[in-house]
Structure formats: structure tokens, C-alpha cells
Specification:
alpha+beta; Creatine Amidinohydrolase; 10 helices; 3-stranded antiparallel β-sheet
């Protein structure tokens, strides 16, 4: 197995967080060499990493001349470069793969010190695809929190009233997610024609008879893992066209789920969705002309991986590549028409050898 290097913090870097399962706010060096794993860190992180990941050999910066270099008057940022180069020499790293996010300054310094580096985006993405038990537990917690937040939004939708706005629903969602121990970033609560723009975050008053699209991707504080789910609602009687979108989208979601299993191409689920929509006369990303930008119909892919990033491998769309046992993916078909709105339904599922385990346990009804 090739040696590997990561230089990052474990809060913003999914590559680092996968290897070192606790939040370390400052960048540090992670090394894999001859089957051993090492972390080179500031002294006050040593005991934390040893406790969280006892299989990692943890080295304080002082082991590689931190104090000596500082006494020479060297700038702190330059000291990090020299300490990391010394650590690689001491551990025996001469040829290593790095993620695409590896800092250019560190790459230049290590190469000048004789370490050959090669970016291997696929290797670092692949190792994160099969979720470990800690990550799966975090995804499940985030999903339960998303469902509780959806409950809070539905309660307000059922109550209705002239004061109901996207902003009011967002307040209730944030409160619920925060109380559930989630980190809350952006999410979607859109209404009316806004729902035809798939990533429009949404704003303004909500009126009876228009679609309300709620797409939540909370992040579990303990593991930094995400969930992702979407539901669409209408207060009162839905327009016939929106009701038809919802019926077809539920059918498409079921068809996609039936196509998921280890070894199946990711595009099999996408093809299943396109089959449903195209049979009903709607355009899809499969049927569009090359170079055409779809504004109406099924305008996006069927899904994506979820884990330490809300969008990660594998792709569930026209891309090639097989699903693997342990992948966690979204299935999120949707139909849209500019000026009217759209409907999207989204679940997350765990890919298994013989099918899929739906991690989402939530109703699909159009009426809240």
C-alpha cells in the first residue's frame, strides 16, 4: 500500500476527519507508512488523539525540532514546513499520495526535501465511501434530527395563516436541529415558483395552493456526518399539475430504490427515474440534447453520496461507476416547471449486497 500524507485540520477536511475521528481545529500532519499510522501535532492535541484513536502513533512537534527552529527566529508558518519535512524523513516517507486539497506550499517544501508526492483524488474518496460504524451512527442521528425538524415545519404548515413565511419555518427548523445536537448550515424552504429552482433557499410568505419544498441536510456535531432529506407540501388543495408531479415523483423514488444494490451501476437508479418521467412525457437529463440546459422536467441527477460531505462519491446520475456495499446515497427525483414550481422527494439509503436499507423513515404525503 502506498504511503499517504494529509495536512489539514479535522473540522474542515473530510479526508482528515475520516482518519482522525475528533475535531482538531488547527492543521496537522497525518502519515501512513509501512502499515502504521502517525499524527504529528501540537503537544496539547497528543492525549486527545491517543484517546480517540489509540492505533495512531502520535508525535508532538517537539520531537522534530519545534523548539530549536523557533529559537532560530523562524516564522511559525515556516516552522511547520520544516517540522513536517523532518517528520517525513524520520518516519521514512519517500513517496506518497496526497489528496487534491493538500497545500501547495507544503507540497513544494516536501518535494524540495526529496519526498515524491502524487495527487490521488480517487484513493482518498474511495476510502470514505464505506462508512464505519461511528459514521453510520452519526448519519442516523442526523437523519432522525432532520425528521424531527420536518415535523416542526409540518405543524406550522397545518396551522397556516397569513403570517406563515419561509423564514418562520426556518426558525422552527433551526430550533429543532439545534436542540437535537446538530450543526445547522444552510437549507431550503422555498415556495411557489421558487421551488422550480432546485437550490433556491427560499423566502417570503407561503400561500395556500402553492408547493412548499423543504430540503434539509443537518450535520451531526459528534461525528461531522450529514444526512439529507426532502419533502414537498401544499396547504389546502394542490393544483392538478403539482399533484401529478408528486404522484410521478413518488413512483420514481420507488423505482430508484428498487434499482439499488452493491455492484449495480449508479446510473441504473437514474435510468429507473428517467423511465418513469419520460413515459409520462417529461424531459430528463437523459433525454435532453447535448449542451442543452433544461429548465423544465427532471433537471438534475438522481442522487449522490452522503457522509463527511453532504455531496460526495458516488454519483447517482448518468456518470459511470458501480455502487458498493457501505455506500450511503441519496435518491431525490423531482419534476419542475418554471413559473409554477416543482416537487422533489429525497431519502438516504445504505447500499447493501442485495439491495438497500432506507435510512429515512418519513411519510411522503403532499398534504402536511
Amino acid at each position: 500500500m502506498a504511503d499517504a500524507l494529509i495536512y489539514a485540520d479535522s473540522i474542515r477536511s473530510p479526508e482528515m476527519r475520516h482518519e482522525v475521528p475528533l475535531p482538531v481545529p488547527d492543521p496537522f500532519l497525518y502519515v501512513e507508512h509501512d502499515g502504521e499510522r502517525h499524527a504529528v501535532v501540537t503537544a496539547f492535541e497528543v492525549s486527545r488523539i491517543e484517546e480517540a484513536a489509540p492505533e495512531i502513533v502520535v508525535h508532538p512537534y517537539e520531537e522534530f525540532g519545534w523548539d530549536e527552529l523557533r529559537r532560530q527566529g523562524m516564522e511559525r508558518e515556516e516552522v511547520y514546513l520544516h517540522v513536517c519535512a523532518r517528520a517525513c524523513e524520520a518516519i521514512g516517507v519517500k513517496n506518497a499520495i496526497v489528496p487534491s486539497s493538500f497545500p501547495l506550499e507544503f507540497a513544494d517544501h516536501l518535494r524540495a526535501a526529496g519526498v515524491r508526492l502524487r495527487v490521488d483524488r480517487g484513493a482518498f474518496s474511495d476510502r470514505r465511501r464505506a462508512k464505519n460504524e461511528t459514521e453510520l451512527a452519526g448519519i442516523r442521528r442526523a437523519q432522525r434530527a432532520a425528521e424531527a425538524a420536518m415535523d416542526a415545519a409540518r405543524a406550522l404548515l397545518r396551522k397556516g395563516g397569513p403570517e406563515l413565511t419561509c423564514e418562520r419555518l426556518k426558525e422552527a427548523i433551526v430550533d429543532t436541529l439545534t436542540q437535537s445536537g446538530m450543526l445547522v448550515e444552510e437549507f431550503i424552504v422555498s415556495h411557489g415558483p421558487q421551488t422550480a429552482v432546485s437550490h433556491e433557499l427560499g423566502s417570503g410568505p407561503i400561500r395556500p395552493g402553492e408547493p412548499v419544498l423543504i430540503d434539509l441536510w443537518p450535520k451531526d456535531r459528534a461525528t461531522a456526518c450529514y444526512a439529507d432529506m426532502t419533502r414537498t407540501y401544499v396547504i389546502g388543495d394542490p393544483p392538478d399539475e403539482i399533484a401529478e408531479y408528486h404522484r410521478l415523483t413518488r413512483q420514481a423514488l420507488d423505482a430508484a430504490l428498487a434499482a439499488v444494490r452493491a455492484g449495480a451501476p449508479g446510473r441504473a437508479a437514474h435510468d429507473a427515474v428517467c423511465d418513469v418521467y419520460e413515459a409520462a412525457g417529461y424531459r430528463t437529463t437523459r433525454s435532453k440534447e447535448p449542451g442543452e440546459v433544461l429548465a423544465d422536467g427532471f433537471i438534475h441527477g438522481t442522487g449522490h453520496g452522503v457522509g463527511l460531505e453532504v455531496h460526495e462519491l458516488p454519483h447517482v446520475s448518468i456518470d459511470q461507476g458501480a455502487l458498493r456495499a457501505g455506500d450511503v446515497i441519496t435518491l431525490e427525483p423531482g419534476l419542475y416547471r418554471s413559473g409554477l414550481g416543482g416537487v422533489r422527494l429525497e431519502d438516504i439509503v445504505l447500499v447493501t449486497e442485495d439491495g438497500a436499507d432506507n435510512l429515512t423513515d418519513y411519510p411522503y404525503e403532499l398534504t402536511p
